[in-house]
Amino acid sequence: MSENTERSTAVDPYTLTADGIKEPPVGWRASARYFGPGLILSASIVGSGELIATTALGAQVGFVLLWLVIVSTLVKVAVQIELARWTIATGEPALTGYNRVPPRIGGIGWVNVLWAVLALSKLLQLGGIIGGTAVAFSILLPIGGDPLAFTSLVIWTAILAVGSIALLYSNSYTLIERGAAALVVIFTAVTVLIALGLPLTPFAYGLGDLGGGFSFLIPAGALGAALAMFGITGVGADEITFYTYWCVEKGYARWVGPNDGSEEWVRRANGWIRVMYKDALVSWVIYTFGTLAFYLMGAAVLAPQGLVPQGNTLITTLSRMYTDTLGEWASVVFLVGAIAVLGSTMWAAIPSWSRMYTNLLATFGVLDWHDPVARLRWIRVFTVALPILWGVLYLTIQSPVIMVQIAGVMTGIFLVGVVWAVYWLRRNETDPRLHGGRAFAICLAVSSAAIALLGIYSLVDIIGII
Q1: In this prediction, what percent of the chain has a pLDDT beyond 70?
Q2: What's the pLDDT score for residue 48?
């Protein structure tokens, strides 16, 4: 038996036992050592949505949709927290819960049926991510002379796919968390500093520009891009879903222990839920500042020059945000940063989606989710298969921006299903003693209403295109 298999059978975070109980920390300093799921979440978020969709929107419409950036990152957090609350209380990941939400279609919950259909669009998004990363590598280290030549892109896409598989095959939670944290820090810090320094360059923005970004209007012709950005920035349906897996694998549910109905269990559960609150808040601060920075650079640098990222020129266009403010030498800095930010999404997405696909198969009866050996085996199958599939899709379509935006709109639709599932699980499976206060209930209601409107707009937009 391999070392990883022995570890998975010895301590399985998805199996709640009394010997796994741990007292929750009190206060921020004591809680900080238990943060981690939010860092993986931030690594996934600070990537396709921020670098591609948000920057492209800023380049297209300027400052006018600055308000939407803040709303899109803030409004979905309550739903994320509520689903994670249920997970910590039950020890079960999202798709297991989704599958019990009625009505059921052929023994499968309708939310999981919807998830299976809409997850196909996410293949495009992650194809766009691996493609954008391959383009950045190809420009930095071209193979055969022309950095955008098909041969160079094929080679770099293959290197990325194989390298990702090799690095992530073990599916070690600690490795995934630490790698995500390092990648997030590298690019977010540089980008925020440059965005804050723009007022000192020829592409300065002032209070008037920022004020115009809070007109709460969507310009004509920008609805599709705005919907994509709203759906994909901040926590999307996929991030809300896979955050539950990382909460379990960090140990939150195991440390609460099985629900014996006692007041001690309620106290522990509420304690670890408060740790999760802090973890989610830190994550929100990271990706919100990153999102604002990308949007400001797109609006201040690209929009005045009429530059909109598209096709395989995505990376070279985005690099203008740096070279036009710092000089040509900054091109290398940008490329390294772009690799870090897009690579962070790949780093977080591969193990996250591998877990969700495996969990989906478990709801179909293909495997027993609580068998750690079978679960790890299937997770590894998807760890190998997904990067290869994403790479093939990119090389076939070769339009990272379009691929990401399509997935953003479809994600907005699935968010409605997530909200329905969250309310059903809250009402039927979450111990009422863990529900939180009135203030949170109001935040959850506002969050849900905003997501419902997004879903309606997305459907109208798609029907209009058809």
Answers
A1: 85
A2: 57
Contact between 12 and 372 (Cβ < 8 Å):
yes
Which tokens is 171 given? Answer: 């599916």
Tokens of 122: 């996410």
User: Please, which pLDDT band fits residue 339 given cuts at 50, 70 and 90?
Assistant: confident
Closest by CA to 225, choosing from 325, 287, 299, is 299
What tokens were used for 420?
């329905």
DSSP H stretches of helix in 298-399: 314-326, 330-363, 372-397
- Contacts of residue 236, defined as CB under 8 A and 6 or more positions apart, other chains included, come to 45, 49, 76, 408, 411, 415
Distance CA 105, CA 315 (A): 43
* Beta carbons within 10 angstroms of residue 275's beta carbon: 24
C-alpha–C-alpha distance, residues 269 and 361, integer Å: 29
Whether residue 387 has a cis bond before it, omega within 30° of 0: no
Q: Could you give the CA distance from residue 271 to residue 351 in angstroms, rounded to a whole number?
A: 28
* pLDDT band of 228, cuts 50, 70, 90: low
Structure tokens at 75: 């409004």
- What residues have CB less than 8 Å from 5, skipping those under 6 apart? 372, 373, 376
- Decide if 348 contacts 43 (C-beta within 8 A): yes
Query: Running DSSP on this structure, what letter comes out for residue 148?
Result: T
Distance CA 102, CA 111 (A): 8
Query: What is the per-residue pLDDT for 195?
Result: 72
Confidence of residue 13 (pLDDT cuts 50, 70, 90): very high
pTM of the model: 0.87
CA 392 to chain centre: 22
Rounded alpha-carbon distances, angstroms, from residue 147 to 67, 154, 362, 399:
37, 11, 43, 16
Amino acid at 201: T
Pairing of strands 104-105, 108-109: antiparallel
The pLDDT-based confidence of 237 (bands split at 50, 70, 90) is: confident
Q: Is the dihedral of CA 340, 342, 345, 348 positive or negative?
A: negative
CA distances from 118 to 51, 113, 343 (A): 23, 9, 23
**Model confidence over 240-254: pLDDT tens digits?**
999 999 999 999 999
- Model confidence at 7, pLDDT cuts 50, 70, 90, reads very low
